[in-house]
Amino acid sequence: MEALDAEFCVRWLTAAAGAVEREADRLTELDSPIGDADHGVNLRRGFTAVRAALEEAPPDTPGAVLVLAGRQLISTVGGASGPLYGTLLRRTGKELGDAAEVAPGRFADALAAGVAAVGQLGGARSGDKTMLDALEPAAAALTQDAAAFGAAARAAAEGSAATVPMRARKGRASYLGERSVGHEDPGAASSALLLAALAEAAGTAR
Ligand code: ADP
Ligand code: MG
Question: Is the minimum distance from the CB of 188 to ligand 1 under 6 angstroms?
Answer without folding.
Answer: yes
